[in-house]
Structure formats: structure tokens, C-alpha cells
Specification:
This protein has 269 residues and is of the alpha+beta class. The chain has 2 domains: 5-54, Uridine Diphospho-n-acetylenolpyruvylglucosamine Reductase, domain 2, CATH 3.30.43.10; 57-268, 2-Layer Sandwich (Uridine Diphospho-n-acetylenolpyruvylglucosamine Reductase, domain 3), CATH 3.30.465.10. The protein has 11 helices and 14 strands. The strands form 4 sheets. The protein has a 5-stranded antiparallel beta sheet. A hairpin with a 6-residue loop joins β11 and β12. The longest helix has 18 residues, at 251-268. The protein is globular. The structure holds flavin-adenine dinucleotide. Flavin-adenine dinucleotide (FAD) is lined by residues 25-33, 50, 70, 97-98, 102, 106-107, 109-111, 113-114, 116, 119-121, 158-159, 180-182.
């Protein structure tokens, strides 16, 4: 067993200070970090529990934007009337993460900070063109995801909330890996309504398939901008090169799934 210290600050400022310590790590739901520690892949000297910080919790609407606090659990997002009304596809996505235990412990901030290539939330964050608000700055989704398990976050930087523009339409479709329920392939599509996400603009983001993590599909975005209908995607495909290939599915299989999930996501929208 590795020894570590545990602190539970009550403000972002205090957490930020605690994270300046050597090898200090933020703890949210612990559903990625604790297994990683058990496997000795992470050995933090101090765990800084974000769970006691009120300003990281909650869901609110600010005009055309839905703001979700970093320590809001997947279950809270899935059951929120505000989310269901503003972005039903986001509530659906959260309700399909893992199992009930994972959904009641795991948080949106933890998922987006971790940036697992098979996680659900990165598809929505990129597909909606959300903004990641940290204790230091605001980061556009297009500049935030930088590779497998890699983001623009700097050491000690804390995600405070995620700001989602409320779209005119959005849909999410996921082909899950049966044992874990992580994405084998998932696709989030959205059509803008104005403001941060221009009216008529379309974004398509894919999780689970990219060998460099979540990515957008410009060819599908162009086709859907011309006509936002599943039929518009006929003949628009994603090449297998650059996609992940593993025991769960080849790159070619994932490419075929992207086509199918994209059409389902548009139909759902
Ligand atoms: C059995 C199982 C099945 C799962 N299935 C799915 C699935 O289907 N889809 C899916 O998307 N995910 C799935 N997950 C992952 C789950 O969603 C996790 O909750 C999530 O990846 C991490 O969130 P967390 O709150 O538990 O973060 P933690 O494990 O506490 O932290 C993860 C990382 O993020 C950092 N961090 C946490 N919060 C912040 C913050 N606010 N600011 C900066 N850094 C922060 C931590 O320091 C750590 O490095 C599954 C997990 C398990 C165990």
C-alpha cells in the first residue's frame, strides 16, 4: 500500500493552493483515479478531494448557455430537468455512461479532465463546441483535447465548469463495448442556434475510434449543413486509416460504425 495525504478544501482557491504541492492530484468521483492508483499506475503524494467545493457543483442556464459544474455527477446530468429541456442529447449521453454506480460517483469534470479516448463526454464537448472554464482561463473545445488522455490543462489547473451552447438540434448515438459500456464508437451531432454556436452551423464529433482521441468530421459537417438529414450522410465516410484497432474492433469496423452512428445521431436529433 502506498501512503498518501488526503485534503478536502472548501474553495477552488484552497484546492488550487493544495495542488501546487509536489505530486498532488485532484480527486473527483475517483472512478478513474482510484483504479489507476490500485494498479500502481499513479502514485500521488496528496489527494485533493474536490467534493467539498460548492462552486464546482450544479447545473444552471444562462441565456443560450447551459453551465454544468465540474463535480456534477453523470446521474445528476442525466436526471436534470434543465438539461433534458435544453440539450436532451446530453442527458441521454450521461444516462448511458457505465452503470448506476459509475453514474452516481463519476463527474463530468473528471471525465473531461481524463479524456479517455473511449469516454462519452468528449464527444458532446467537442460536438457542441463547449467552453471549458478553469480556475485560470476559458478553453474552447477545439483547443482543449490534445491527444489520448491528454488535454490543454496545465499542472494544477482545475476545471470549474463546462459551458455548453444550447443548440437548435442535437443527437447522440453510441455503440458500446458490452463489458464496460465505454464507447466502441459514439457520434454527437449538433446544429447551432446562434451565439457561441452560429445558427445553421453543424458540428460532428466522434469518440471511441480516433487513435488520437475525439475528433470532428468536416465532410459530415458540410453534408449536414447543406441538409440536416440522415440521408445526407449516404456516401460520406471516414477512412479507416488513423482509427484505433484493438481486440474490440478493427479500424475498418470502427469506420463502418462511425457511418452508422452518425446517421442514428442525426435521426435522434
Ligand atoms: C466500470 C466503469 C465503467 C465506466 N464506463 C464509462 C462509460 O461508459 N463512459 C464514460 O465516458 N466513462 C466511463 N467510465 C469512467 C467514468 O465516467 C469516470 O467517472 C470518469 O472517467 C472520471 O471521472 P471521475 O469523477 O471519477 O474522476 P477521477 O477518477 O476522480 O479523476 C480522473 C482524473 O481527472 C482529474 N480531475 C478530476 N476532476 C478534475 C477537475 N475538476 N479539474 C481538473 N482535473 C480533474 C483527476 O486528477 C484525475 O487525473 C467508467 C468507469 C468505470 C470504473
Amino acid at each position: 500500500m502506498n501512503n498518501f495525504d488526503y485534503v478536502r478544501p472548501s474553495s477552488v482557491a484552497a484546492a488550487s493552493q493544495a495542488l501546487l504541492g509536489a505530486n498532488a492530484t485532484a480527486l473527483a468521483g475517483g472512478h478513474t483515479l482510484i483504479p489507476t492508483m490500485k494498479q500502481r499506475l499513479a502514485k500521488p503524494s496528496t489527494l485533493v478531494d474536490l467534493g467539498g467545493i460548492a462552486e464546482l457543483k450544479g447545473i444552471r442556464r444562462e441565456g443560450g448557455t447551459l453551465v454544468i459544474g465540474a463535480t456534477t455527477t453523470h446521474a445528476e446530468v442525466a436526471s436534470s430537468g434543465e438539461v433534458r429541456q435544453a440539450i436532451p442529447a446530453l442527458a441521454k449521453l450521461a444516462g448511458g455512461i457505465g452503470d448506476a454506480q459509475v453514474r452516481h460517483r463519476g463527474t463530468i469534470g473528471g471525465s473531461v479532465a481524463n479524456n479517455d479516448p473511449a469516454a462519452d463526454y468528449p464527444a458532446a464537448v467537442l460536438g457542441l463546441g463547449a467552453t471549458i472554464v478553469t480556475n485560470k482561463r476559458q478553453i474552447e473545445a477545439d483547443k482543449y483535447f490534445t491527444g489520448l488522455f491528454s488535454t490543454a490543462l496545465q499542472p494544477g489547473e482545475i476545471i470549474v465548469s463546462i459551458r455548453f451552447p444550447i443548440p437548435a438540434q442535437a443527437g447522440y448515438a453510441k455503440f458500446e463495448q458490452r463489458a464496460s459500456r465505454y464507447c466502441l464508437v459514439s457520434v454527437f451531432v449538433a446544429k447551432g442556434k446562434g451565439g457561441m454556436f452560429s445558427s445553421g452551423d453543424v458540428r460532428v464529433a466522434v469518440s471511441g475510434a480516433g487513435s488520437n482521441g475525439v475528433f470532428r468530421v468536416p465532410a459530415m459537417e458540410q453534408a449536414l449543413k447543406a441538409n440536416f438529414a440522415a440521408a445526407s450522410l449516404a456516401g460520406v465516410s471516414v477512412p479507416a486509416s488513423g482509427l484505433m484497432s484493438d481486440m474490440h474492433g478493427s479500424a475498418e469496423y470502427r469506420a463502418a460504425l462511425i457511418d452508422a452512428m452518425a446517421q442514428q445521431a442525426v435521426s435522434a436529433a
